[in-house]
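Example with several molecule types.
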Amino acid sequence: MKLKVYADRMSQPSRAVLIFCKVNRIDFEEVRVDISKRQHLTLEFKEINPMRKLPAIVDGRFKLFESHAILIYLSCVFPGVADHWYPADLFKRAKIHSVLDWHHSNLRRGAAEYVKNTTLAPALGLPLDPQAAAEAEKVLFSSLSKIESVWLKGSGRFLLGGNQPSIADLSLVCELMQLEVLDEKDCSRILAPHKNVQQWIEDTKNATRPHFDEVHQILFKAKVKLQKLRSMSINNESSLQTKLASKM
Amino acid sequence: MKLKVYADRMSQPSRAVLIFCKVNRIDFEEVRVDISKRQHLTLEFKEINPMRKLPAIVDGRFKLFESHAILIYLSCVFPGVADHWYPADLFKRAKIHSVLDWHHSNLRRGAAEYVKNTTLAPALGLPLDPQAAAEAEKVLFSSLSKIESVWLKGSGRFLLGGNQPSIADLSLVCELMQLEVLDEKDCSRILAPHKNVQQWIEDTKNATRPHFDEVHQILFKAKVKLQKLRSMSINNESSLQTKLASKM
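Resulting C-alpha cells for the full complex:
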C-alpha cells in the first residue's frame, strides 16, 4: 500500500515532508487537508492524527505525526534516501537532533507566531495581536542570529558544516519561507542583516529544485494576493479574511 | 575521558539527563552550572554551549546540547543502556520521536511558562505575568488531557503502551515534576482530573528510584521553602526573590 501524506501546503512542516518525499522519489499519495476549511478538525482526520495537526502519514498500518519524526522515519525506511539527509554516523545524527530540538522553541516559535500575529490571523478567524507579534519578533531575530553564528558556522554551505542538505536544513528553510507572505519591506527588514542565512536559503532551494518551488506555489500565490490587498489599502478584517480564505 | 554533564538540578531537562545517566550506570562527572547565579551566561560556558542553555554534555571532543538529543545520543553510544529507553525497532523509535517533538510545543511550553509566571519569575529577577500564566494554563491543561487520551492510551503502564519507561517518559515526567513548587492546592487542581497521569508519574518514579528522588531533592527543598514563605504571607517580591535565590 502506497505511503499516504496528509498535508496542507500552507503549513510549513507539511511542505518540508512533501518536498522530502518528492526529492527522494518516494512513491506516495498526497492527501490534502485544508486547515482554512477546518478539515483537520473532522472526526475522519482524528483517526489519522488524534492531535489534529498536519502533517501526518499512514504507511501500511503505521500512523505517525510530527514532521521531524516523519522525516526521520522516512529517511530510515526508504533505502533510496541518500545518507546526507539523516546520516548513519551517530555524531552527525546527534547534531541534527540538536538542531531539530532547538528549532521547536526558537525559529518555529518566533516565525510562526510573528507571521500569524502580523498577517495571517484574520484568515484563520483570529484577531491580529501586536503584543504577541512584538514578543515573537524578538524570538525570531534571536533565532536568525543563532542560525548564522552557531548552526551555519561550519565550512560547508548547509547547517552543521554540511556540503549537502539534511532534514534540518529542509525543516528550517521551509519555516523561514512563510516570511514571504509578510509585507515585502518587513520581510527585507528581518532577513537583510543575515546574509549567510539568505545564501543558505538559496542553497537549500537550489538543492531541492524543482520540487521546492512547486510545493511553495501556494505560498507565492498567497503572497501576491496579500500584496494586492495591501496596495488596495483594504484594511477591513472580515473582507481580508474572506479573500484570503478563498485563496488558501 | 569521562563524560561531563553540565546541569542545574533546578532545570527539568537537566534532571532528566542526570537521572538517565545514574539509572543506566553511565560513568560521568556532573558539572553544576547555577542558573540563578547566571553561570550559564559566562564566556566559559559559552564554549560548551553557544546557546547558553542547560543541560549540555562533553564526551571526549564531542559537545552536544538539547536534552532530547543528549538522551538519544547516550542511549546509542553506551552499550549498557537497555533497549526500552530508546528501542532499536524503527516503528517504536519513530513513535518516541513523535512524543518528544510534541512535548516541545505542548507540555513543556505549558508547564514551564505556567510555573514561571505564577511562581518562579521573582527568583529569576522577572515580574509575575498573570496573562501569560493564563495562556500557559490552557496549553498545560490541554497537554495533560492529550497525554491521558493519546500517549497513555495503550495497555502498558508507560507512554505508547510500554511496559518499561523510555526516554520520553523520563523527559515528560521530569517536566511535570516542576508543578511541585506551586501552591499545593493549585498543583492538585491541575493534576487531580488526570488519574492516569498521576499513576504514570508514580510508575516512572518507581522505575527510576532511588535516583529519581535524589536528583529531585533540590526541588523538594525549594517546595518547602516556598510553602513556608506563602504561609508567612510574605508577598513582597524582592524579599521572595532573595530568599528563593539563596536556596537555589
